C-alpha cells in the first residue's frame, strides 16, 4: 500500500481464540508489525482504545474487529476517503450506498437497525451508522475524544460520533459489508442492550 503500519491487537479474554492466533502472527511477521497487548478480562471497549492508543506510533489509527467481520479490503478506501476530504474521522457505514450486513438473524438485524434509528431520531448526529466500530481516526482527534467520552461498551461508539460533531470534527463515510463471525460467538447480550438504552438517554440529556 505504500503506507507504513503496525497492527496492535487488544484481547480481553475473548472466547474466539484471538490471542492464540495473534501470537502465531507475531512469530511470522515480527513484533515490530504485530503488537499483541492482551488484558486479563473484559474491561470495556473504551479502555481497550486507550490501551491500544498508548502503543500506536502512527498519525492515524484504524480501529476494527479482528474476526474478519470488518474486512481489511476496506482500509485503502478509508485512507482514500480521508485524503479526499482531509477528514478527522472516516466511519464505515452498513446503512448507506452498497453497505450491508450478512450472516445476522432477523433479531440481530432488528436490534441494530432499531438502535441506529432511535439514535438518529434523538441525537441527530449527521452520520448514518452510529453503532459500528470500523473507523479511521486522526490520532490527536481520537485522543481528544477519549478525554471527552464517558460511556463504556457499545454506547461508546455512538458517543464518539456525537462528541466529534459537538467539537466540530469532520466525518466522512465509506460503505462497508459487515459479515458476522464464522467462529466464536458475539458478546452482545441483554445486559449490553440495557446499557445501550441507558447510555443513549444519558447522551440525549447531556448533548
Automatic annotation (TrEMBL):
Signal peptide: none annotated. Keywords: Endoplasmic reticulum, Glycosyltransferase, Magnesium, Manganese, Metal-binding, Transferase. Gene3D superfamilies: Spore Coat Polysaccharide Biosynthesis Protein SpsA, Chain A. GO terms for biological process: dolichol-linked oligosaccharide biosynthetic process; GPI anchor biosynthetic process; protein O-linked glycosylation via mannose. Its cofactor is Ca(2+); Mn(2+); Mg(2+). The keyword Ribosomal protein does not apply. It catalyses: a di-trans,poly-cis-dolichyl phosphate + GDP-alpha-D-mannose = a di-trans,poly-cis-dolichyl beta-D-mannosyl phosphate + GDP. It comes from the Eukaryota. It holds the Pfam family Glycos_transf_2. One of its GO terms (cellular component) is endoplasmic reticulum membrane. Pathway: Protein modification; protein glycosylation. Belongs to the glycosyltransferase 2 family. Transfers mannose from GDP-mannose to dolichol monophosphate to form dolichol phosphate mannose (Dol-P-Man) which is the mannosyl donor in pathways leading to N-glycosylation, glycosyl phosphatidylinositol membrane anchoring, and O-mannosylation of proteins; catalytic subunit of the dolichol-phosphate mannose (DPM) synthase complex. This is Dolichol-phosphate mannosyltransferase subunit 1.
Amino acid at each position: 500500500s505504500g503506507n507504513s503500519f503496525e497492527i496492535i491487537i487488544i484481547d480481553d479474554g475473548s472466547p474466539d481464540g484471538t490471542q492464540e492466533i495473534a501470537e502465531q502472527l507475531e512469530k511470522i511477521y515480527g513484533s515490530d508489525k504485530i503488537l499483541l497487548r492482551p488484558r486479563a478480562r473484559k474491561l470495556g471497549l473504551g479502555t481497550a482504545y486507550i490501551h491500544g492508543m498508548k502503543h500506536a506510533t502512527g498519525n492515524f489509527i484504524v480501529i476494527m474487529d479482528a474476526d474478519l467481520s470488518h474486512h481489511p479490503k476496506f482500509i485503502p478506501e478509508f485512507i482514500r476517503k480521508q485524503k479526499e476530504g482531509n477528514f478527522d474521522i472516516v466511519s464505515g457505514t452498513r446503512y448507506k450506498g452498497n453497505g450491508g450486513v450478512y450472516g445476522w438473524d432477523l433479531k440481530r438485524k432488528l436490534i441494530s437497525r432499531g438502535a441506529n434509528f432511535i439514535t438518529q431520531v434523538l441525537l441527530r448526529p449527521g452520520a448514518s451508522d452510529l453503532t459500528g466500530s470500523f473507523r479511521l481516526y486522526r490520532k490527536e482527534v481520537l485522543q481528544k475524544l477519549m478525554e471527552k467520552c464517558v460511556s463504556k461498551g457499545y454506547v461508546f461508539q455512538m458517543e464518539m460520533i456525537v462528541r466529534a460533531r459537538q467539537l466540530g470534527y469532520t466525518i466522512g463515510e465509506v460503505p462497508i459489508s459487515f459479515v458476522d463471525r464464522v467462529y466464536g460467538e458475539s458478546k452482545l447480550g441483554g445486559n449490553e442492550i440495557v446499557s445501550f438504552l441507558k447510555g443513549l438517554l444519558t447522551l440525549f440529556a447531556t448533548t
